[in-house]
Each structure stands twice: as structure tokens, then as C-alpha cells.
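A student in our group prepared the protein record below, which I am reviewing. This is what I was given:
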Amino acid sequence: MVNAKLPYKVADLALAEAGRKRIDWAESRMPVLMALREEHAKRQSLKGTRVAGCLHVTKETAVLVRTIVAAGAEVAWSGCNPLSTQDDVAAALAAGGVPIYAWHGMSVEEFYWAIDRTLDLHPTLTLDDGADLIFSVHNRHPELAKEVVGGTEETTTGVHRLRAMAAAGALKYPVIAVNDAETKWDFDNVFGTGQSSLDGILRATSVLLAGKNFVVAGFGHCGWGCAMRAKGQGANVICTEVKPTAALKAVLHGHRVLPMDEAASIGDIFITATGMKDVIVKRHFERMKDGAIVCNTGHYDCEINLKDLEALTASVREIRPNCDEHVLRDGRRIYVLAKGRLVNLAAAEGHPSEVMDMSFANQFLSLVRLAQEGRSLPVAVHDIPEAQDQELAGLKLKTLGVGIDALTEDQIRYASDYASGT
């Protein structure tokens, strides 16, 4: 059903060979997903389904796409961020016959055009990172919703918005919150975001982190990962928060906690990880020291109010790739990385393959579950089953050569024996 006149749109199909090598590299480091591919290719578990995906086009995503196709699905794909697509990977997928509409540096108009092209497939399943695809179905193409059996959502921001939709009675089909799986949240969000965000900062700036005042806005799982890795590099970590329990966790992890109004004047590097708009605004820019570096690792680019910064700016130049120097009217310089978009994807390569192995295994198994049970599931946001979480963690441990203990039958009985006392 995809428009035959435009079966794909990528930056340069000649990049396909380089992209294929990167996908091969990722496949060698994602053993859980590869095992699921082998199993479900035999079963053809997704045969008859049509999957529209809107997720960062990285080498890891390509492994997921190829696994979905191997299981029998028709697929159409777009990127979920205008700056996160790896053009060589997109080219490799296009050359392999995947209808993909994604390239690095898309405009907002092109971004939604690409989503619309995936919807030409008339999907029965949707796979999302940030919920833009689901919002497009609901708000701009509601006639397609009745064909959709169910969807999945990859990230915190998208899950929050979808739960709000469900609470308001606006959600039209069931969605599985992949983000909230323990094997996603506690690994991808913490270790993946921490490593890849610092990778993006270093690629864009090449600065020394040791000794710097590193301000992390938000001490959720992503902020926790960034703070942990920055501290490991010798930075003095300062966290800002609005949630008392999260702030207390940051304190007990050994970080200094301040309001952003105070942190703004002493920070050297700022990274937002909140999912909330206007975390850094005009009054904060006005207090920042000369040379401050500002970036974001939350899903949307609204956490840093760049319009406020532009109002203070006399001139702008790209001084390094993904590093814009704003010279303010008072002569101070503030450096914005990746134009406020996801620094780990726009300025680096996203999360390492090893940690995405579990996240994308959850995505794949959720699609299989929806294909089998979607019509019988209530229209709501559903969690990953605990058994699936533990099974995937066990598989991952096995690939790492790690063994663990198992409860005896007597211990299992004891665990549920409420009559046992001292």
C-alpha cells in the first residue's frame, strides 16, 4: 500500500554499504534480539501484520526492523527526531527493501510528512518513540485508528502523554509501555543515556569533564545515568529537581542539589533530562558564566528555551559540528549542542548496541503479543509482563556468561507461606 512512486526517501542511497557494515556490527552485539529473530522467523509470528514505526534510525533500530520483517510483517519506517537519523543506516534499510522515510536534518514539516508516508501502509500495529506516530493517527488520520490492533511506546515522555490520553478517554487502541519495563528503564535509560549523552557532549566539544561543574536537570533514570557517568569522569555533579524524593536520591548518591536559579551561575556544562518544557530559560542564561555549555537529552527540544537565548544573542556561529556559539550582547559566550535536540543521538550514535538489545527485544515481543492478543486487550496503556522482564534478563545474563541461583521448591513454598513466623 506504500506509495509506489516513492518507496523510500533517504539522504543518499550510495551510503548503503557503510550502513550495512554498521548494522552487522550491531547484530554481533545484540544476541537476545538475534535469538528472537531466529525463533520467530520460523514461526512467522507477525505474518499478516502491517507495522508502522517511528523511532530513531540507528544501527540498533535497523536490527529491530530486520527482525520484525523476518517474523513476517510488512513494515514502513520514519525517524522520531529530525536530527537523530544515521543516513548510512537509513540507506541500508532502503536498499534492503524497507519503505523508510528518514534523513538527518529534516524540517518539522518533513518530519510529519515522513510519518504520513508510513501511514500509507494502513498499519495494524504502531511502534513509537515519543508518541508522534500515535498522535498523528489520532489527531490527523483518525480514520486509520480502527485498523490498528495496538501500539508500543519506547520512551518516558511518550508514555506520560499516552497515559494522559488514556485518562482523558482519548486513546483509541491499546498501547504497551515498553519504556516502563525493568529491562528497559533500569538499563537503557540509566546506562545507555549516561554513556551516550557524555559521548555526544565530548564529540561536540572535546572538553575535559574532570573538575567541571556538571549540572543535570532531572534525577530520573536518564538524569541518574548522566550524573553517574559525569561523576565517574571527575566532574562535580549538581542536580536540579522538582520532586523531593528524586532530589533526596541525588543527595544520597553524593551529588549537590540546588535550584536551577542557583546552579545557573556556577555550572560549566548543563544537560536537561526532564521531559518538561522551559527547564532553562532567559533568567538562567542571564546568570551563566562565559563559556557555559548547554545541551539536552530529553526527547523533545523544548527543555531549553532557545527563543529566550536568541533574544539575548548578538551573533551565532557553528564553531564545531553540533556546537553553536551564541555571543550575547554583553560579550559572554554560551554554547548550545545539537540545537537543543537529543545530544546523544544528534551528536553521537545513541545508546550502545548491548543495552538496546533488551529494549528492542521488549519492543519485538510486545508486537508479537499485540498481534496475538491486541483485539482482546482493553484500550489502555499496558505494562510489560513481569515474566517477560525476567526471561529477557535471564537471556541477557546467559549471553554474558553469568549464572545465578534458583530457589528450591521448599524456598518457593516458604515465600508464599503467610503463616510462617519467627
